[in-house]
Design brief:
Number of helices: 5
Largest sheet: 21 strands, parallel
Low-confidence stretches: 1-29, 553-557
Keywords: Lyase, Signal
Protein name: Pectate lyase
InterPro entries: Agl_cat_D2, CBM6-CBM35-CBM36-like_1, PbH1, Pectin_lyas_fold, Pectin_lyase_fold/virulence
Mean pLDDT: 91
Structural class: mainly beta
Number of strands: 56
Pfam families: CatAgl_D1, CatAgl_D2
Helix content: under 10%
GO molecular function, one term: lyase activity
Distance between the termini: 56 Å
Shape: globular
Strand content: 35-45%
C-alpha cells in the first residue's frame, strides 16, 4: 500500500500571512465524496470558550472523546459556562451533539448575539450502551465488568426563535448549577425552508378523530382513517401537518401508491411513545408498493435493544416496488430501516427498487439501513448516517430459516454519495453476500469500533457464491476508520475482509480507487491471504487504493486560528487580523481536516515594568512598543508621527495591579 506522510505542524510555519477564512467544519462538504447537505457544522473546539470549560481530547479507544467528531469535545463544567460560535451563513435551525453521564439530564440555552433563541433539554436516557462481545446491555450492572461503554453522545435539535445572520454570534450556555459536565461536540446550523402546506386534494390526519398535535392523545386511529380515506381518492396523499403526532403502536401500510407528506423535517414530528418490544415504527405490509414518504422527523421512546429482540425499527417489512423515502430524519429506533419480509416462502414479498435519499439516519441502537431477505435494486444516496450502533449501511443476503422464507438473494443494491460517521459498533458499510452491489462516492469518518467498509461471510445466507455479476467498491474516502479492538480483541482495517469458511468465501469483489486517511489500524485487512494468487482464485481485485494522511488537510483545507492565554483558548482570530501581532505556537489536527493553529498575543508577552511610561485613554493605560519579533518599549517622548506608523492596539489579558486595563500600542518604523 502507498503511504503518504503525516503533516507536521512545523511544515506550516511559512504561511502566516495567508490565513484562510474562519469557516465551519464541513464533514459533508467534501467536493468528491459524501452527501451534499443544507447545514454547516461548527466544532466545539473551534469556538471561543468562557471560563469553566475544558477541552477533552483523546484517541484512547475507551475514552468518551473518541466518540466525538475529531476525537475532541468541550465540557461545560460550571453554571453559565459557554461556547461562542461565529455564524458563516444565515440560519434559523440548530442541531446540537452532546454527551452527559448515564442517567443525567440538564438544560442549555441558545443565544443569538444577546437574545435568547431556545432552551434545550439534554438527556442521556436514549443513549449509553455497554458492549461485551456480541451482547449489548442497557445498564452497567447487567453487563460484565469488562464491557465497553458506548453510545455516549446523542443529539437534540430545534427551530430557533430568531434569525441568524452571517457574522452573528451563537452562544451555547449551561443553565444549571451542578457538578455534571455537559459535553458539546458540535452544532449544525441550517436555514430551514418554510413549512410545506397541505397539498390540494390531500387527506389530513387532522381531519379524523379530532386529532391535534401535541395534546398527549394517541393519533394512531386518526392516521389509519386518513390512510383508508386517501386510498380512495385520486391524489392518494396523506398530509401530516406541523406539530408532534403521537403513536402508541406500529403503523402498518396496506395500500399501494400512497404518499405520506409531512410539513418538513423541522416541522412534522412523528413520535412513537412506547418503550416496549415491538412498540412502534412504520411497517410495509403485503399490500404496500410504490409508496412515497417524505418531509418529516420520526423518533421513539425506545431505550433498549432488549437483547437484540426489540423488533422496533423505524421502517421495516417489504416495501414492494419503487417505494421512495426522502427528506426524512429517523432517530432513536432499534434500526433506522430493516427492509425485508419474514414470511413463509408461499407468502413471501420483497422490496425492489427502493430509494432512500436526502435523509438523516442517526443515533439508532443498531443498523442505520440494512437491505435483507431478498431486497434488490435498492439504494441509499446523499444521506447523513450518523451515530448508529451496528453497520451504518448494509446489505445482507439473509435467508431466514425460522420463517421458512427461502428468500431470494439480495442483489444489485447500492450505497452512493453518503456521509457515514461516528458509528460506535460494527462497520460503516457492510456487504454480507448477495450479488452485484455497488459502494461508491461515500465519505466514512470516525468509525472507531470496526472497519469503514467490511466484506464478510460471518452471517449465514445467500452468500458470495451468488455473486456472479461481481460487487464494486470504488471511490470512497475513509477517514479515521478501522479499529484496534472490535469487541473481540481483533484489529480491523479501514477496509476489512472476513471469512467464515463454514458459510463460504468472499468472491468476485472489486475494491479500487479508495482513499484511506489516518486509519486506526491497517489500511486493508483480512483473515485470509491477500497475496496475488489467492486474490486471483477468489476473483478479488485490489487496485489503486491509497493511503494519504495529508488528504484531510489538503482537500478540505481549513485552518482555524486561536489565541491562547496559558493553555486556554480565549478567542478565535479572524482572517483580517494582522498576524505579525502574534507569536505562532503550534498546529494541531482538528475534526475532518481542520488545522487548529494556536497563537499568543504579543501584548501578553511584553514585560511591563514600573519605570515604563504610559498614557491614560478612556480609563485604560496605553504603553507603546515596536512591532517586532521581540517588541521594544517606546517612551512617550518618541517622535511617533515622524518616525513610526501606527499598527494596532491590543489589550493584555491581565489588568494592572489596580485592575486597570492595559493596552499595548504597536508601531512600525518608517
Amino acid at each position: 500500500m502507498k503511504r503518504g506522510p503525516f503533516i507536521a505542524g512545523a511544515g506550516l510555519l511559512g504561511v502566516i500571512a495567508l490565513v484562510p477564512a474562519l469557516v465551519p467544519s464541513a464533514v459533508a462538504a467534501d467536493e468528491q465524496y459524501g452527501a451534499t447537505v443544507p447545514y454547516a457544522r461548527y466544532e466545539a473546539e473551534e469556538a471561543s470558550r468562557s471560563d469553566g470549560t475544558t477541552l477533552e481530547r483523546s484517541d484512547d479507544i475507551e475514552s468518551t472523546a473518541i466518540e466525538a467528531s475529531g476525537q475532541s469535545y468541550v465540557a461545560l463544567k460550571d453554571q453559565d459556562s459557554s461556547l461562542d460560535f461565529t455564524a458563516t451563513s444565515a440560519a434559523n435551525a440548530l442541531d446540537l451533539r452532546f454527551t452527559l453521564p448515564d442517567h443525567k439530564s440538564g438544560q442549555v440555552q441558545v443565544y443569538i448575539n444577546n437574545d435568547l433563541a431556545a432552551t434545550l433539554t439534554l438527556s442521556s436516557e436514549t443513549a449509553w450502551q455497554y458492549v461485551y462481545k456480541e451482547s449489548v446491555y442497557d445498564e452497567p450492572t447487567l453487563a460484565p465488568g469488562t464491557a465497553h461503554k458506548r453510545f455516549r453522545f446523542d443529539e437534540v435539535h430545534t427551530l430557533l426563535n430568531g434569525q441568524i445572520q452571517k457574522g452573528d454570534h451563537v452562544r451555547i450556555v449551561k443553565v444549571d448549577q451542578n457538578d455534571t459536565e455537559y459535553g458539546i461536540d458540535f452544532i449544525e446550523l441550517e436555514q430551514a425552508a418554510p413549512a410545506i402546506e397541505r397539498p390540494e386534494g390531500a387527506v389530513s390526519i387532522a381531519d379524523y378523530n379530532n386529532a391535534k398535535p401535541g395534546d398527549g392523545v394517541a393519533d394512531d386511529d386518526a392516521l389509519i382513517s386518513a390512510m383508508d380515506a386517501a386510498a380512495n381518492t385520486s391524489s392518494k396523499v396523506v398530509y401530516i401537518p406541523a406539530g408532534t403526532w403521537e403513536f402508541s403502536r406500529k403503523i402498518g401500510i396496506d395500500y399501494p401508491g400512497l404518499t405520506f407528506q409531512g410539513a418538513g423535517l423541522w416541522y412534522t414530528n412523528i413520535f412513537f411513545t412506547s418503550d416496549q418490544r415491538e412498540g412502534g415504527g412504520i411497517v410495509f405490509n403485503p399490500g404496500a408498493s410504490n409508496e412515497t414518504l417524505t418531509d418529516f422527523y420520526m423518533s421513539s421512546n425506545l431505550k433498549s435493544r432488549f437483547g437484540e429482540g426489540a423488533q422496533y425499527k423505524g421502517f421495516a417489512g417489504a416495501a414492494g416496488v419503487n417505494t421512495r423515502v426522502a427528506n426524512v430524519w429517523v432517530e432513536h429506533f432499534e434500526c433506522g430501516f430493516w427492509m425485508g419480509a419474514y414470511r413463509d416462502h408461499e407468502h413471501m414479498t420483497y422490496t425492489d427498487g427502493m430509494v432512500i435519499e436526502n435523509s438523516r439516519i442517526r443515533n439508532n441502537f443498531a443498523d442505520g439501513v440494512n437491505f435483507v431477505q431478498g431486497t434488490k435494486n435498492s439504494t441509499v444516496r446523499n444521506s447523513s448516517v450518523r451515530g448508529n450502533g451496528d453497520d451504518s449501511l448494509a446489505s445482507w443476503a439473509s435467508n431466514d430459516l425460522r420463517s421458512q422464507s427461502d428468500a431470494d438473494a439480495s442483489k444489485f443494491n447500492s450505497f452512493i454519495g453518503n456521509t457515514i460517521e461516528l458509528g460506535w459498533r460494527a462497520g460503516g458499510i457492510g456487504l454480507f453476500g448477495g450479488e452485484g452491489h455497488v459502494v461508491k462516492d461515500n465519505l466514512i469518518v470516525n468509525n472507531f469500533s470496526g472497519a469503514g467498509i467490511r466484506i464478510s461471510t460471518v452471517f449465514e445466507g445467500r452468500n458470495f457464491t451468488y455473486n456472479h455479476a461481481g460487487m464494486t467498491i470504488t471511490h470512497n474516502k475513509l477517514v479515521r476508520t478501522g479499529t484496534t479492538d472490535d469487541f473481540y480483541g481483533k484489529k480491523r482495517g479501514a477496509i476489512d475482509f472476513e471469512e467464515n469458511l463454514e458459510v463460504g468465501q468472499v468472491l468476485n469483489v472489486s475494491v479500487t480507487d479508495n482513499l484511506i486517511v489516518r486509519p486506526y489500524a491497517e489500511e486493508i485487512s483480512a483473515n485470509f491471504d491477500l497475496d496475488s494468487e489467492a486474490l486471483r482464485k477468489q476473483g478479488i481485485t485490489l487496485r489503486d487504493n491509497k493511503r494519504d494522511d495529508e488528504a484531510v488537510a489538503t482537500e478540505q483545507a481549513q485552518i482555524v486560528n486561536h489565541v491562547l492565554v496559558g493553555d486556554q483558548v480565549v478567542r478565535t482570530v479572524p482572517e483580517t487580523e494582522n498576524y505579525s501581532l502574534y507569536w505562532y505556537q503550534r498546529d494541531e489536527r482538528g475534526a475532518h481536516g481542520t488545522i487548529n493553529r494556536y497563537w499568543v498575543s504579543k501584548a501578553d508577552g511584553v514585560a511591563i515594568t514600573p519605570d515604563m511610561e504610559y498614557s491614560v485613554e478612556g480609563g485604560k493605560r496605553v504603553y507603546n512598543v515596536t512591532l517586532a519579533d521581540l517588541p521594544q518599549y517606546l517612551p512617550t517622548s518618541t517622535d511617533f508621527s515622524g518616525s513610526y506608523d501606527y499598527v494596532a492596539d491590543l489589550e493584555r489579558s491581565q489588568p494592572a495591579d489596580d485592575g486597570t486595563t492595559i493596552v499595548v500600542r504597536f508601531w512600525s518604523a518608517k
